[in-house]
């Protein structure tokens, strides 16, 4: 009987609410992943959208200044690559004049869209076959985000096309496209270089250079406003 009474002395009736409150404390002070999941379920949609938007912007910043190698590999996503691919395909569509004016330029959009994603997948598959220690979607994420310099070059070249074209402007567009190509290749190799075995890095870098060179050539060859 004494033992039974001592149990109730430890948990008085007035303290039941305190005990329930203390049971929630471990979940709030648990691991960061569980805490983030809990907060994500309760946060407003606007906050979720802004958080993802800031993450995409942060990845673009790391492509422009590729110093921290794990910034694109730690939390990969495909929102940035999809945005860049859609932007480039929209600007490049209709770049070839067709005799049939009823054609709305859709095939050009599809060609650019497919070229970007299939090209990124092929380069990633080559990296995996060479023994790279990076996941498929991480590599596609890096290759997609590193299109940013080429997309910037495309926008600048598009503005230059509104001027009266001459040899100097063509040379200027060529230089801008090559800067975008070198910048994109440097950023991609900066992020993906350490994922390849020592003796096979050149074999992994060559398809990356070819992939970005083809896209850069599309930029400089785009000549219709």
TrEMBL record:
Membrane topology according to the record: Multi-pass membrane protein
TM annotation in the entry: 112-130, 142-164, 170-191, 203-220
InterPro entries per UniProt: Yip1/4-like, Yip1_dom
Protein name: Protein YIPF
Protein source organism: Papilio polytes (Common mormon)
Record keywords: Membrane, Transmembrane, Transmembrane helix
A GO cellular component entry from the record: trans-Golgi network
The keyword Nuclease appears for this protein: no
One Gene Ontology biological process: endoplasmic reticulum to Golgi vesicle-mediated transport
Main localization, broad class: Golgi
């Amino acid at each position: 009987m004494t033992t039974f009474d001592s149990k109730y002395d430890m948990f008085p009736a007035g303290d039941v609410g305190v005990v329930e409150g203390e049971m929630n404390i471990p979940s709030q002070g648990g691991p960061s992943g569980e805490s983030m999941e809990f907060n994500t379920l309760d946060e407003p949609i606007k906050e979720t959208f802004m958080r993802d938007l800031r993450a995409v912007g942060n990845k673009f910043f790391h492509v422009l200044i590729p110093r921290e190698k794990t910034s694109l590999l730690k939390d990969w996503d495909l929102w940035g690559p999809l945005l860049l691919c859609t932007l480039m395909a929209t600007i490049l569509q209709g770049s070839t004049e067709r005799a049939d004016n009823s054609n709305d330029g859709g095939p050009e959009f599809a060609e650019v869209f497919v070229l970007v994603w299939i090209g990124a997948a092929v380069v990633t598959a080559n990296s995996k076959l060479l023994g790279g220690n990076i996941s498929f979607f991480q590599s596609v994420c890096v290759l997609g985000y590193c299109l940013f310099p080429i997309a910037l070059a495309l926008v600048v070249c598009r503005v230059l096309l509104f001027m009266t074209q001459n040899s100097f402007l063509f040379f200027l567009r060529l230089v801008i496209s090559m800067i975008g190509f070198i910048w994109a290749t440097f950023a991609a190799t900066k992020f993906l270089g350490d994922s390849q075995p020592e003796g096979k890095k050149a074999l992994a870098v060559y398809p990356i250079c070819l992939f970005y060179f083809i896209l850069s050539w599309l930029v400089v060859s785009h000549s219709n406003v």
